[in-house]
Design a protein that fits this description.
The structure holds 2 protein chains of 2 kinds.
Chain A: H1 7-21, H2 25-36, H3 43-59, H4 63-78, H5 83-99, H6 104-120, H7 127-138, H8 142-159, H9 162-178, H10 182-192, H11 195-208, H12 211-224, H13 228-241, H14 247-261, H15 268-281, H16 286-297, H17 300-303, H18 313-325, H19 331-341, H20 354-367, H21 369-380, H22 389-397, H23 405-420, E1 423-427, E2 438-446, E3 449-456, H24 459-466, H25 473-488, H26 494-504, H27 513-527, H28 557-574, H29 581-591, H30 596-608, H31 614-623, H32 629-638, H33 649-662, H34 668-682, H35 689-702, H36 707-710
Antiparallel strand pairs in A: 1-3, 2-3
Chain B: H1 27-34, H2 57-74, H3 87-105, H4 113-125, H5 139-142, H6 155-176, H7 195-204, H8 212-217, H9 226-239, H10 248-252, H11 258-269, E1 270-276, E2 281-286, H12 293-297, H13 300-321, E3 327-332, H14 345-390, H15 397-413, H16 417-431, H17 437-453, H18 457-472, H19 479-494, H20 498-508, H21 515-531
Parallel strand pairs in B: 2-3
Antiparallel strand pairs in B: 1-2
The chains are: A mainly alpha, B mainly alpha.
Chain lengths: 717, 546
């Protein structure tokens, strides 16, 4: 279509698109309107101009306005156009219809369009050429694949079908990655708007670890990501790059985000802006941080309750952003922000962001000093207020005791009874009992019976754990016995079992010897690896299989084994020597597991043991060189323990070598963990060769590409 | 009046006119002339048709006797779901065959009485096998070696076999009636009728005319032009596929499957056949429900007409040999007060499906035809190529390349894109220096264009780089240089050689032959900037642009 219209109109289209992308949409639309208003335009040119205008509106999320262009003008014009152009315009219309919830008639029209294309032998996308190009690229022949993909980009641009151009640009983005044109890849990913591609591109940019690449890419994104759809995609990329964005660029990015963030509309653009700000917030300082917090706490979305039956998705990110910016606030500001946050837990409360709002209040209380904490406690827990579970849990964090021991005992009994019903064996026509915190329920039907397994959250169990010291011995035993019996149920899901076992880890300080022994009798075999898939789901991998359409993480055997190891180690820490060599044997065995998840948990469990033998420390040092990043990080965590370790000279040498090697690691997380350990070790040294060596290593981490690594070397952290 | 008046209703009779004038030949007309309408099952037959052009009374009398004899057999109606196959259908055929033969009868190639008798007799006998319930006795059926005896087969199976083999059964019945005391057709055939020829026409009336079997059946004989007679019979048969054989009243009494329904409705909407004698035109009239004419006109004639046109095309050569021919055309009747019913939606869907299937078939044929043409041209090109290669040693490199280019360009024009550019690309890169500069530019530029069209922009870029210095020698506004520049820009753009493309465009801009060309170059450049994300190279639109 576009290659058939007069050249000066082609130039106009280019400029209007560029102009709109650079933030001058209204001028671009006006220029197109002027051009369309000319009397002597042929139908094709008019169609191309109107289609371009509709595209700009579509890209800016003004789908209804875009559709109106079709209804009022383009539909009629396209009747007389060549078949291919008609089809291209039809697909553009479908893109808009699809974006406006696609009424049934639109769906019929869309599928009829596909059929018409097939009859005409018109393929909007030249998939054969693209497949061929991909195959060449896979063989390393980008000198062949790049021109082929580029030709498809050109062809689809001239053809005028938006979706087909985006499809070609998707290939172009991947090709740009292959040939090292990262900024171009990011730009194309923004135009394409596909989640997987965005992630692929962001990952590639991060792997490159080049400040220049990040700067060029981010600059290009914020220069051209101004239409709504482009803005959202650019935000996705920047959010993923947040840890790598150079400090000098942060202010510019925030300045690009803020105008969208302060807009009153709670739409996709608003959400994207706040999601990105939330990711960046921890790195924002001074004026930028102040502006972000102000934008959040004065925003209508923050200040007003969502309409009935609706939620405000972006408020959750606004809360996160405020939390991220809170570290640099003075007491006055903390108080101001805390007071502005309290309504989110009361008059403008929304279940969707309630946990985050509560978390923010607790965080502000923890860094705002006793005065603020007391003020917040008084506001949150006025006498006679009915407490929900989350607020009751928050009381524990805020140092506020809620309820009488009798009330707590009543609650505990109710919670235990509810959890006891996590797995229910019923007759087919029997109604199930309600279980607190149920997120989903799996049903197995066997003849005239059925087994219901509830997937639950652990909020209520968490409350019980917080209040464990206020329960009497018998009730503690009842709680633990109930949890163990559900863990042992062969029908229960692995994810449920892991969750329950994680909760048990904190109960060590109130277990009697007998109960502790009972815990070991159930968790010990699990910690040794005797974990089996639940009944009815013997094919453990079925939910993760690539051919499975419903990918649900229902837990793994390694997670259950690891949780059991960790829980037993935690109890051992609370009750030193209660399991003694039995837990050490289990951990030593797990440290040699072929399953990296089990090794990871074993390293964590090692860190919890009260007595760390020389052998165990040596094993942990060697664990920092585990080929699996997660395991190595778990090994580093061992050395982050608050209690300083006494290392032998040989161990010092080994550990310093590990840390020095970690500076060269390709894994950001390993480097971050190693940087944290380096800083922790340095804070316990005052002089000597080791100090010098560690300072040199720290200096390497301080120059790291990632903020998350650099920040681990800050003494205050 | 470019058209003749049509008979609007029953009873408005127009006499058949003489040679050179327009004649009407519709069933309505015929029936009206022949007396009252009677259902095919009524044994009172009414008058015989005219048996036009038969001069010999004994032949005419034979035909009348034959008609009376076969009428009860044709009235058996063993296949009730079929459109009318009674003697009325045969009478129609006699009428239609006479009308078709009319131009011939005014010429030196006129049909003899014997030929006319055979033709008219075949009109009565061609479908008689369809009504022969005792077909199990025929050799045609016996040769099939059915698993069960004929009588034990289900009625549906028997009817199916009758339908499939009715032409051969008809032929056998005719043969079996020669001098027979119990003639299956109800009348003994003697020497007055060439029964063998009639049998052949019956056997051939519905088989594919491109087959060997057809050719064998209708070989011309002394004083019996079988090809001509067969053509007339088959055309008459197909022209009788119309409303007169498919009354809605009867259809409503039958449980027709969807395919049968479409058949009936198609007949029903085919209102009449009209012979415009002076123009040698056979006009098929369609009549559709008021308000649906346009929609139906896109469906029904497209289903009906191709069969008729194909049948006419099959016999055109034979007719031409005898100095006559007919053109077929279609016309949709316009009648505001028509009572024609609309077909049920499912029938229309089925018709659309049939139409789709037919068009798919036509497309496939069309593609095959294009391929066949290409395949036919290849040996010719290969011979030229072989001849040229054989003389390679004796030719100068320049002459060889020149002739090779000519062959490659011809092959390109014939559709052999990949082959042609592969023939020329290597030799041109190797030996182009042996050509004069103008030839080098002409052949090279065309080769670049071919390579670009065949998505070989890398190879095209090689040629561009090879020719660039040569192009520099040409005047800036030389047409060949301009064409080369255009090809070079196209190449660099397609090759994604962004910087090179920009340079080429910048070089070309000052030499643009017109404002239009200049703007076109500017458009290419700016489109590249946009698609490469180089927004900084793009400006804000100015007023003159808008």
């Amino acid at each position: 279509m576009i290659d058939k219209i007069p050249a000066h109109h082609r130039v106009l289209l280019v400029r209007c698109k560029s102009w709109a992308m650079r933030g001058h949409l209204s001028d671009a639309l006006a220029a197109l309107d002027v051009a369309v208003a000319h009397d002597n335009l042929d139908s094709l040119t008019k169609a191309a101009l109107l289609s371009a205008k509709a595209e700009l509106l579509y890209l800016d999320g003004r789908n209804q306005d875009g559709l109106d262009i079709f209804r009022n003008a383009l539909d009629a014009i396209s009747e007389g156009l060549p078949a291919e152009t008609r089809i291209a315009i039809g697909y553009n219309r479908s893109s808009l219809s699809l974006a406006t919830l696609f009424a049934e008639g639109d769906a019929d029209a869309h599928y009829a369009l596909i059929d018409r294309s097939a009859f005409l032998g018109i393929e909007m996308e030249d998939t054969r050429s693209l497949l061929d190009a991909t195959s060449q690229a896979e063989r390393g022949k980008s000198y062949d694949s790049l021109p082929a993909i580029w030709r498809e980009v050109l062809r689809t641009y001239y053809q005028g079908c938006w979706a087909a151009l985006r499809a070609a640009l998707r290939y172009m983005a991947d090709e740009c990655l292959r040939i090292g044109c990262f900024a171009e890849a990011a730009y194309n990913a923004m135009l394409v708007g596909q989640k997987e591609l965005t992630k692929r591109v962001a990952d590639a940019l991060l792997r490159r670890e080049s400040v220049d690449v990040i700067r060029d890419s981010v600059n290009r994104l914020i220069a051209t990501g101004n239409l709504a759809k482009h803005f959202c995609q650019a935000c996705s990329v920047i959010e993923m790059l947040h840890d790598a964005i150079p400090d000098a660029l942060l202010h510019g990015v925030a300045r690009w985000l803020l105008p969208r963030a302060v807009k009153p509309a709670d739409d996709g653009i608003h959400r994207a802006a706040w999601t990105t700000l939330a990711a960046l917030a921890g790195r924002l300082r001074g004026e930028a941080a102040r502006l972000v917090v102000d934008a959040a706490i004065t925003h209508p979305v923050w200040c007003r309750a969502p309409e009935r039956g609706r939620i405000s998705v972006s408020r959750k990110d606004m809360i996160r952003a405020v939390g991220g910016c809170s570290d640099g606030m003075d007491a006055h500001r903390l108080t101001e922000v805390a007071r502005k946050t309290l309504p989110l837990l009361a008059e403008v409360k929304s279940d969707y962001d309630y946990p985050e709002a509560l978390g923010l209040v607790c965080h502000l209380a923890s860094i705002g000093g006793d005065s603020l904490k007391n003020e917040l406690v008084e506001s949150l827990y006025p006498r006679g207020r009915q407490l929900d579970t989350l607020l009751a849990r928050a009381a524990h964090r805020l140092g506020k005791q809620v309820g009488t021991p009798e009330e707590i005992a009543v609650s505990a009994n109710r919670i235990v009874e509810s959890y006891a019903s996590q797995v229910q064996h019923l007759n087919k026509d029997e109604s199930p009992r309600e279980v607190f915190g149920t997120m989903m329920t799996l049903t197995h039907e066997i003849d005239d019976k059925k087994v219901l397994v509830h997937v639950t959250n652990d909020v209520h169990l968490g409350f019980l754990t917080d209040q464990r010291h206020r329960l009497d011995e018998a009730l503690v035993a009842k709680v633990i016995e109930t949890m163990l019996s559900i863990v042992a149920d062969e029908w229960n899901l692995l994810s449920n079992k892991s969750s329950l076992i994680w909760s048990i880890r904190d109960w060590g300080d109130c277990l009697s010897d007998d109960v502790a022994e009972r815990v070991f009798s159930v968790l010990g075999p699990l910690a040794s690896g005797s974990v089996y898939p639940p009944r009815g789901m013997e094919e453990t991998g079925q939910y993760e299989h690539p051919l499975s359409r419903s990918r649900t993480n229902l837990g793994t055997t390694a997670e259950v084994q690891g949780a059991a190891l960790y829980a037993l180690a935690c109890i051992e820490r609370a009750r030193p020597s209660i399991f003694g060599s039995r837990i050490q044997g289990l951990i030593e065995s797990a440290l040699l597991s072929r399953n990296s998840d089990v090794r990871k948990f074993a390293h964590w469990a090692s860190g919890k043991l009260p007595n760390k033998s020389t052998d165990l420390v040596s094993t942990m040092i060697l664990g920092t060189r585990d080929p699996i990043d997660e395991v190595a990080r778990a090994a580093y965590d061992f050395f982050n323990d608050a209690t300083p370790l006494k290392l032998t000279r040989w161990q010092w040498n080994l550990l310093i070598y590990s840390l020095a090697s970690a500076t060269q690691s390709s894994s950001r997380r390993i480097r971050a963990s190693a940087a944290g350990v380096t800083q922790a070790l340095l804070e316990n040294l005052s002089s000597g060769v080791r100090l010098k060596k560690l300072k040199k290593i720290r200096s390497a981490f301080q120059r790291d590409f990632y903020d998350s690594v650099r920040s681990r070397t800050w003494p205050s952290r | 009046m470019d058209d003749c008046a049509r008979i609007p209703a029953w009873g408005r009779l127009q006499p058949l006119l003489g040679a050179g004038k327009m004649i009407f030949c519709t069933l309505r007309a015929y029936v009206a002339t022949s007396g009252p309408i009677r259902a095919s099952t009524v044994m009172s037959l009414g008058s015989s048709p005219e048996f036009r052009f038969v001069g010999n009374e004994s032949h005419r009398s034979l035909l009348v006797q034959l008609r009376e004899a076969v009428a009860p057999v044709l009235a058996n109606n063993l296949l009730p779901h079929f459109t009318d196959h009674s003697v009325t259908h045969s009478d129609n055929l006699v009428q239609l065959a006479g009308a078709l033969a009319e131009p011939l009868q005014n010429s030196e190639h006129r049909l003899s009485d014997d030929e006319l008798t055979v033709l008219y007799a075949a009109c009565y006998l061609h479908d008689i096998g369809m009504q022969y319930e005792r077909a199990g006795d025929t050799q045609v059926i016996q040769r099939l070696k059915l698993e069960s005896p004929w009588e034990e087969l289900s009625e549906a199976t028997r009817r199916d076999l009758l339908r499939i083999h009715h032409n051969l059964i008809s032929a056998e019945m005719v043969q079996a009636s020669v001098n027979s005391s119990a003639p299956p057709i109800g009348i003994q055939l003697g020497s007055r009728l060439d029964a063998s020829s009639v049998a052949c026409l019956c056997a051939a009336h519905c088989i594919d005319s491109k087959t060997e079997q057809y050719d064998q059946l209708i070989q011309d004989r002394p004083r019996m032009r079988m090809k001509l007679l067969s053509g007339l019979l088959r055309l008459a048969d197909i022209l009788d596929e119309s409303r007169r054989r498919a009354s809605r009243e009867k259809a409503r009494t039958l449980l027709l499957d969807l395919t049968a329904q479409t058949h009936w409705w198609r007949h029903f909407y085919t209102q009449d056949v009209q012979f415009l004698s002076s123009e040698r035109v056979v006009r098929i009239w369609f009549d559709f429900p008021p308000g649906s004419e346009a929609e139906y006109a896109r469906i029904v004639p497209d289903l009906q007409m191709p069969w008729i046109e194909q049948e006419f095309a099959r016999h055109r050569a034979v007719f031409t040999r005898y100095g006559f021919g007919w053109t077929v055309e279609q016309k949709v009747a316009s009648n505001l007060y028509s009572n024609v019913e609309e077909m049920p939606p499912l029938v229309m869907t089925e018709m659309l499906k049939q139409l789709r299937a037919r068009r798919q078939q036509e497309e496939a044929f069309s593609r095959l035809a294009a391929l066949e043409q290409f395949d036919e041209s290849r040996p010719h090109i290969e011979r030229r190529l072989a001849a040229l290669r054989a003389q390679k040693e004796s030719l100068s490199p320049g002459d060889y390349l020149r002739q090779l280019a000519a062959i490659a360009f011809d092959l390109w024009d014939l559709g052999g894109k990949r082959s042609s550019r592969m023939i020329l690309d290597g030799p041109f890169e190797r030996d182009s220096q042996h050509l004069s500069e103008s030839e080098r530019m002409a052949i090279g530029t065309r080769l670049i264009e071919m390579l670009n069209e065949d998505r070989a922009s890398f190879e095209a870029a090689q040629i561009v780089r090879l020719l660039r210095p040569v192009a520099e020698h040409l005047e800036d506004d030389h047409p060949m240089r301009r064409r080369f520049r255009k090809a070079a820009i196209d190449t660099m753009v397609k090759e994604c050689a962004y910087d090179e493309a920009v340079v080429e465009i910048e070089r070309a801009l000052p030499h643009a032959g017109s404002e239009r060309e200049r703007r076109s170059l500017q458009a290419i450049a700016e489109e590249m900037h946009l698609l490469q994300g180089e927004h900084v190279r793009l400006e804000r639109p100015s007023e003159d642009v808008t």
